Amino acid sequence: MKQVYIYIMDTMSDWQYAHLLPLLNNDSFYKVDHDKIELKMVGADTWHDKKHKDILSLTEKVLLENGAVVSICASVGALNSLGILETRKHISNELYFFKLVSVQYVSESNYLDQHLVVDGNLITASALFVAYTLVAKFNMIDLDILDAWYHY
């Protein structure tokens, strides 16, 4: 079984993965396949600090090797700084804000006004819909149970 990695950093928005962690750590009726999720990047306002360059390099490597990367909120801006968004459809929290906080954002034609975008093995999302989408995409729970959980 592969591990699911969540990159933890100063200023991260820990509430963004709070719904996902119990689903990854519960074997009662969940059918989790950890081989499918490899890296999850959460929002934070320090992604452009040089101390995060190693994890960003790892992100590129995971994507090139067809591993799944989930990027939400401000971490999508970090992918922009790598040039990854130039060839991939994506979302962040809101286009106007994203353009303000992203360094040299030139990929507006790939920006979709949705809550979540899946482009191959890259999943980008606004913060609120990521847990539901990950669980659905990776078939971790029967959809009837997932919908009941989501609409509770």
Automatic annotation (TrEMBL):
<dbReference type="InterPro" id="IPR029062">
    <property type="entry name" value="Class_I_gatase-like"/>
</dbReference>
<dbReference type="InterPro" id="IPR002818">
    <property type="entry name" value="DJ-1/PfpI"/>
</dbReference>
<feature type="domain" description="DJ-1/PfpI">
    <location>
        <begin position="42"/>
        <end position="127"/>
    </location>
</feature>
<dbReference type="Pfam" id="PF01965">
    <property type="entry name" value="DJ-1_PfpI"/>
</dbReference>
<protein>
    <recommendedName>
        <fullName>DJ-1/PfpI domain-containing protein</fullName>
    </recommendedName>
</protein>
